[in-house]
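Notes from hallway chat w/ T.B., transcribed later so I don't forget. T.B. wanted the structure written out for a chain they're using in a teaching module, and asked if we could keep both sequence and C-alpha cells in one place. Agreed to drop them here.
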Amino acid sequence: MPRVPAADGRALLVEQLDLRSDCSRCTGLCCVGLHLVRSADFAIDKPAGTPCPNLRTDFGCGIHARLPESGFPGCVAYDCLGAGQRVTAAVRAAHDGATWRDDPAAARDAFAALPVVTQLQELLWYLAEVLALPAAAAVHDDAREALDRTAPLVDLAAADLLALDVGAVRRAVGPLVDRASALVRDAARAGRSLDARRSPARHGPARHHGARAAAPPDDGARHRAPGAGLRRRLRPGADLVGADLRGLDLTASDLRGALLLGADLRGARLDAVDLLGADLRGADARGTDLSRALFLTPAQVGAVRRDERTALPAVLA
C-alpha cells in the first residue's frame, strides 16, 4: 500500500483500493442479490436472488433518474463501496466470462460473495480515513499493517470468501478505528476548550481536527451547547429519531450506531462527531457542515437531505 502524506493521500488510497462504486463495471448484483422489504425505502418486496423488475437487460436501472419518486429512496442511498465491480470481475474470471444470468454457479458465487466483499471494502474505507487523520498518528503504523492484511482478502476466490471469518477481520480492525476516533475527538475537545477561553461567547470551528482544514464560520452564527437532558442522550446507539439538533455544538460526540432518522441537523456543529454506522436516513443536513464528521460513508451521505450549502468531506464531495 502507498505511504503518502495523510492529508493528501486518502483520495488516492480510495482510488487504489477501488472503493468507489462503478455500476458500469457491475452486472446489477445489488438489484438481484439483495432482499428488499416493502417499506419507506423500497416500493416492493423482493427475495434475494430475484432480479428487480426495474433491472434492464444491459444491467442498468430502468428508473434510475426517478428512483425516489418511484418509491426506491433506499436504492439511492445504497453503496457497495466498489464490491459490485470486484465481485463481477472475479466471477467472470472464474466462470469463463459468465454472469449470474448465464450460469447458476456464477450466480451462486456472485450473490454469496457480494455481502462479504462489501464488508471488507467498508473496513478498508475506515482504515483509509484513519490514515488521513493527523490527530490519530499514534495508530497509523498499526492501521497501515491492518490495511495491508485486509486489502488482499477482497481478491479471494468465492469459496475462500465464504469460508472467511469476517467477524475476526472486524475484531482486528475495530480497535484501531476506536482508538483513532478517541484521539481525534479528544483533540477536538481540547480545541473547543481553547476557543472557549479565547472567546467565551462564541465557538469557532475546531482547530485540532484531523486532516480536515478548519473552515471559518460561514455566517458568524453561534452554536448552542446541548442541554443536560440531551447531553445524556448523546451516546453510541442513541435514539435520536426526529430530534431537533438545529444549531447545537455537538463537537466530539460519539454517535456510533445512533438512530438519527429524520433528525434536524441544520446548522449543527459536527466537528469530530463519530457517525460510524449511524442511521441518517432522512436527516436534514441542508446547510450543514459534514466535512469534519468522522467515518461517514457514501451510503450515509446518500440518505440525508442536503443542498448546495451542505459541506462534505473532500473524498465524498
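Follow-up for T.B.: The chain has a mean pLDDT of 90. Might be a good example for the class.
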